[in-house]
Amino acid sequence: MRAAHDRASAALRVAVDRTRAKEAWGFAGRTLGRPVMTPHGPGWLRIAATEAGRQITTFWDGGRTAQQALPASIPRPALRAIHDHHHDGWDLSQPPEN
After folding, report:
1. Are 89 and 96 in contact (CB under 8 A)?
2. 3-state class of 98 per DSSP?
3. What global pTM score does this model have?
């Protein structure tokens, strides 16, 4: 997951910010978030991984769905981008948030 996070950081052109909060692991070790520096300033990059073809829609698309469904008046991190890819039999999704 750390290697996948590093690949996602490079693909999204953000840098892990090791001076801020430590990494955060989530759902069964299948998500990993770290603070990053983005072109917009400090942000958060969370990746999710699952075996190829086994995505659970709510888990996989939750950030994207929330961004589209919730009114802007509800405070939350801004979803800046989503980068999905496949690597070694795993599907990975990386939405950087700010």
Report:
1. no
2. coil
3. 0.71
